[in-house]
Amino acid sequence: xxxxxxxxxxxxxxxxxxxxxxxxxxxxxxxxxxxxxxxxxxxxxxxxxxxxxxxxxxxxxxxxxxxxxxxxxxxxxxxxxxxxxxxxxxxxxxxxxxxxxxxxxxxxxxxxxxxxxxxxxxxxxxxxxxxxxxxxxxxxxxxxxxxxxxxxxxxxxxxxxxxxxxxxxxxxxxxxxxxxxxxxxxxxxxxx
Length: 192
Fold this sequence. Notes:
By secondary structure, the protein is α/β, with parallel strands linked by helices. The chain is built from 6 helices and 7 strands. It is 30% helix and 23% strand.
């Protein structure tokens, strides 16, 4: 689906009260982001908050409308909200959480930081998560312009997580025999 706004300035002009921004600079080498958080790609803000904890810098761009939050989506290669862009560029590496469609509970890992992606992938598999590379090149986070790759290293990590997995992680009582949010956070943090 095509984005309604091509960049942040256009979106802010069209719908200035439809979103909120959290930008916490913790002076860390890592910045954890959810550029399509809140009601745009539900569950991604919660994941970013949990992984960042009180340790790493955190950026959230969150849709707050009653409906039509998909209209607030700005593709990661053109996402240029100033506070988020600055916070990512100040960090060594960014870890971005996104939501995608798809069957089952899958984590699609992408980005340009191959070593970190491999470590995270191993840890997540060991924790019992299904991990793969997305078939759609637009969801692989491999474009240098992608916000996850704008840190000082020029390499980041992009998570694309299915709605079924995001829903279950927000509601752990639904399926307690599967790995939970704590398992996900631990696997990611140990890799970093």
